[in-house]
Each structure stands twice: as C-alpha cells, then as structure tokens.
Inverse folding.
C-alpha cells in the first residue's frame, strides 16, 4: 500500500494537467508589520480560484472506467464543487453536486456554469453531505469526498511540493487553513517528510473549530453548531483520515474571530490587490495572531520565513461592506463608544472638542428628552488598544460617562440602527442630507459655524471610505432664523 507521501509524489505529475503552479509571493506590507519574511502561496489564482481543484482532479482521474461510468456525486460549500465540476468537464464525466442553501451565489453559479447538476440542501456542508451519501446509495454512484479521502488529500499535498520547489531555503512555519482537514493533512505529510524542522500551524474559524475539538477529545467529534461566515471551512467534524495523519504531528493550532478574518482580507488586498474569501484569509489571520502571541520569540525577526496559504477567492460582492466595517475592529483601527452628554445646546460641539483632531468614523444621535443625550461614536485609531483606552480615559476626565462598545457584538450589529426614532417634542426641525467631507476637522467646522441658538436633534453618519460621507442631520431652527440658516448652509458649502 502506498504511503501518503508516495501518493502526493504521484499526484504531483497529474496536478498540472488541470491546475496551475501558483506563485509564492512575498507580502511586503505584512513582512514589514510582522518583522519576518512573509510569503503567500496564491491558490486563489487557480482556474476555480481555490486549491480544491487539485484534490478533486487527483481523485477523479484515479477512477477506473467502470467507476466513472456510474456517475459522480459530491458535497461542497462551493470550492470543492467547482474543482469536481471542472475535473468532470475535462474528463467528460457526469456529476451531481449537493451544496448547502447558504452557499454564496457566486459559487453556485460558477459550478452550474461548468455543466454540473447542482442540488441545494440544508444549511451546512454536513447537511449537504448527508443528502449526497443518500444519493450515492440510491444511484450506486461514486462519492468524491471533499477532504476525507487519501487521493483527495494527496492532491492537496501538491501545494506543499510546489512551496518547497519555489523556496528551497529554510521555512520556519507554514500556516494552513482548516475545514475538514484535507489540505492540512496533505501539506503536513509532505513537509514533515522533507523538512521536519518546519512548523505546521493549522488555522480555524473560532466558530467552526472542529479540529481543535477533535484534538482535545482525542478522536473526531462533531460540533453542536457551526458558524458559516467562513463558509469554505464551515465543517462540523474533521475527516477521519486527515485526523489520522495530523494527530500528534501538528506544531500548533490557532482559532481566529470574524473580525480577525476580515482584517486579514484587508491585509491580503493591500499586499496583492486580490480579494480573498473568508476561508481564504484564515492562514494570514492565524499567522498574525501567532506572531502577536510570541510566535517569533527568540527569533532573529526579519530572518524568519513564514508561509501562509491564501486558499480561495470566491467572495460574494455584497459581503465586502461587512468585511470593510469589521476589518477596522479586527485590526484595532477603530473604537466604538457610547457617550452620555447633557441635552443642551453646545454639548455636541464640546464633545467634538474633547475628541481633539482624531478622525470620527461614525456618529449616531437622536434627541429623546431634555435631560441626557446618548451618542454612538466611532473613532479611528492609530495605536490600537492603548489609544482606545486613552480616549476613554480622556472623555471620562472631561466629565462624560463612557461605555466602550468595541468588542460588543450586539452593539456593533444592531445598536447603531436603534439610535433614532421620532421626537414628538421637537418643533421647527429641519431635516438635511448632505455630503460631509472625509477629513479631520470637518465635523468641528460644521458645528463651529452653526448658531448656538440652533439645536442638533439628529445626526447619523458612517464613514464608508468614499470622498464624501453621507450625513442625515436634524436641526431645530426657529422660524425667525430661517434666512440665517440658509446663509449658514451656503457658507458651509457642503453638498
């Protein structure tokens, strides 16, 4: 019986019949930030924008003619499905692919465009897999597993072959994204046979950490719930074969949050101008956390070489807004505070003065009564947690009750949309929507030019990266001041 390394060597000869030899690129910005030589294995540049093509093709091309004639069935959250579909198209095989109903539409359409029959079933990969296995029994078809198959693992292991060919010098650590464990098993098996001193670090989403749970239990165990933000790694239970290969041989495991994943997507964009899907950014997110936790302790900094596998780029466009907002939090480049201020004219201006020249990323306020006002405010950070703590202390020293909401999931997702409503007691309210220049001091100018006799009753603003921020503002203006108010708007010269 062939060893897994022998299978990888055999798969190596087949891989480039359909897959690209993807580049191993230096990430300049990440290298500077982490104090090491950071290399990215660009599997997002495969024809299906994911490494999954390697394992799917190696499995399918290994089938006998009799097996292939029975038809193929696979289950996938998207990337494996595209690999199976392209491999089946090249070999003129018939295939049916089960995908969760939560799969991003870009992946579903890509699979259908390759000629595969696609059936949507369940909310998770595991739901789709159960239905796929039922069809296999019903049709006597061949099941092409996404990760729990030695031929699939061997195909994924060709990523490691290329890494060592492209970088023959020592590598200190390779960071590998983990879903079902197929890629990790293939990479670990080959690297440890050739470069046993190279550390292999697996990276999982914190809300889908099936390998972590398995390592703790000592055997594959299912998770009760699986988060689906990183849909390409949203697996309830690690594969039996991957676990057999990696058990006792891994050098470390890292679990990363949604915010850390979003920050890694931004990092990859800034270095490569490519947009990674959440699972595709796992390795970089894990690398950053590992280094921050002292993973380079005792090392000679820039002399260390770290490799991250950028595993996929099948990102739905509509997710980018969420990624952008959460990336700032993941990098600790934004702080969110709830601040209580007196409900009287001039309080808004005094709060802005207390914030100094810092860039305001968000401001939400609505008049609710004559006592206190509650403001939801975002501040751009340059020094992370240290600056965040400093801002909170300065506001408290200025007499403002402050609540730090930066790590509050409920507040970040919902609270900003609850700051509003109708204020029945407000009279002569002028409601304005205007373009707010995205530069420090713009908000202060808006307030300083405004008459102290006019009360701000509503202010909704969020920086989305455009040249002009969109602001909705309510201002209570006495009827006698209408002419002066129009002059104020003209002098302000905002759109």
């Amino acid at each position: 019986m062939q060893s897994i390394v022998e299978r990888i060597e055999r798969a190596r000869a087949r891989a480039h019949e359909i897959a690209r030899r993807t580049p191993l690129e230096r990430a300049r910005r990440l290298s500077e930030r982490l104090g090491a030589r950071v290399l990215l294995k660009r599997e997002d540049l495969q024809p299906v924008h994911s490494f999954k093509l390697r394992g799917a093709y190696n499995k399918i091309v290994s089938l006998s003619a009799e097996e292939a004639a029975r038809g193929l069935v696979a289950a996938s959250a998207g990337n494996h499905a595209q690999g199976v579909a392209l491999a089946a198209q090249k070999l003129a095989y018939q295939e049916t692919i089960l995908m969760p109903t939560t799969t991003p539409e870009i992946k579903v359409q890509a699979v259908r465009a390759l000629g595969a029959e696609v059936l949507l079933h369940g909310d998770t990969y595991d739901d789709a897999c159960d239905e796929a296995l039922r069809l296999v029994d019903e049709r006597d078809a061949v099941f092409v597993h996404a990760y729990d198959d030695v031929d699939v693992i061997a195909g994924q292991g060709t990523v490691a072959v290329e890494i060592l060919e492209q970088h023959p010098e020592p590598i200190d650590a390779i960071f590998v994204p983990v879903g079902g464990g197929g890629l990790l098993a293939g990479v670990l098996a080959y690297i440890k046979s050739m470069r046993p001193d190279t550390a292999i670090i697996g990276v999982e989403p914190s809300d889908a950490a099936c390998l972590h749970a398995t390592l703790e239990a000592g055997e594959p165990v299912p998770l009760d719930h699986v988060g689906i933000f990183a849909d390409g790694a949203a697996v309830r239970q690690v594969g039996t074969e991957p676990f057999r290969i990696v058990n006792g041989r891994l050098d470390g495991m890292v679990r990363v949050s949604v915010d850390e994943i979003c920050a890694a997507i931004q990092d990859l964009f800034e270095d490569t101008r490519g947009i990674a899907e959440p699972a595709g950014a796992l390795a970089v997110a894990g690398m950053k956390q590992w280094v921050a936790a002292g993973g380079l302790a005792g090392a000679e900094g820039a002399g260390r070489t770290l490799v991250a596998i950028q595993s996929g780029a099948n990102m739905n466009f509509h997710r980018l807004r969420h990624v952008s907002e959460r990336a700032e939090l993941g990098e600790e480049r934004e702080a969110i505070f709830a601040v209580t201020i007196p409900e009287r004219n001039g309080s808004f201006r005094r709060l802005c003065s207390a914030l100094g020249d810092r860039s305001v990323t968000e401001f939400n306020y609505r008049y609710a009564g004559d006592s206190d006002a509650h403001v939801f405010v975002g501040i751009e950070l340059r020094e992370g947690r240290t600056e965040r703590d400093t801002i909170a202390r300065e506001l408290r020293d200025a007499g403002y009750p402050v609540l730090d909401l930066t790590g509050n999931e409920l507040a970040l997702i919902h609270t900003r949309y609850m700051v509003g409503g109708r204020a029945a007691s407000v009279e002569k309210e002028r409601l304005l929507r205007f373009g707010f220049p995205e530069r420090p001091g713009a908000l202060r100018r808006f307030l300083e030019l405004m008459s102290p006799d006019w009360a701000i009753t509503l202010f909704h603003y969020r920086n989305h990266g455009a040249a002009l921020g969109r602001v909705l503002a309510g201002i209570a203006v006495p009827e006698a001041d209408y002419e002066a108010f129009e002059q104020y708007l003209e002098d302000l010269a905002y759109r």
About this structure: The chain has a mean pLDDT of 87. The first helix runs from residue 4 to 15. The chain has three domains: 4-51+150-327, 52-144, 332-492.
